[in-house]
Amino acid sequence: MYKGGKIIASLVVVVALLSLPFFYNIGKANKGPIINLNTPGIQKLAGKQCIEPAEWMRENHMKLLLQWREESVRKGKTDYINRQGKSFKISLQTCLNCHSDPALNTSDQFCVSCHNYASVKPTCWSCHTWPKEAAK
C-alpha cells in the first residue's frame, strides 16, 4: 500500500504501451483490397451486376455459398433463381466466371485479396480446385 507511486507509474506505462497501436494509426487511411472488376467475364456482361446486388453480396456471399452447397449436395438442385427471377447454375464456377482473370495467372485475385484484407480464411479450396486456366 505504500508503493502507490510505483503502481500508478506502472499503470501509466502499461496503458501507454497498450494504446500505442491506436495512436500510431490515427489519421491513416484504411486501404481496402485492390479488386480487378475489369475481368473478361465481367466485360462480356451487358449489365454489370452480380447474381444479387453488390451490397447484398458483400454481406451475404458466404451464406449464399453455404446455401448453394446444401441445395446442391443434399437436395440435388442445380439452379439458383435470384430476386429478379434470373436463373444461375449452382456452382463455384459461376462466381469464378466473372471474378477471376485467367490472364493474370495468379491465385491472389478477387476472392483472395478480399479475404486477406478481412483476415478470414475461405474453406472453398479444401474441396474445390482453383480453375485450370489460372493454375498454368
Walk me through this protein's architecture:
By secondary structure, the protein is mainly alpha-helical. It has one domain (34-135). It has helices spanning 4-25, 40-44, 54-74, 92-99, 110-118, 132-135, and strands at residues 79-81, 87-89. Strands 1-2 form a two-stranded antiparallel ribbon. The protein is elongated, with a radius of gyration of 23 Å. The termini are far apart.
Strand and helix map with partners:
Elements: H1 4-25, H2 40-44, H3 54-74, E1 79-81, E2 87-89, H4 92-99, H5 110-118, H6 132-135
Antiparallel strand pairs: 1-2
Instruction: Report the β-strand fraction as a percent range.
Output: under 5%
Order of helices and strands: HHHEEHHH
Spatial order of strands in the largest sheet? 1-2
Radius of gyration: 23 Å
Number of strands: 2
Biggest β-sheet description = 2 strands, antiparallel
Helical content stands at: 40-55%
Q: SS-based structural class? A: mainly alpha
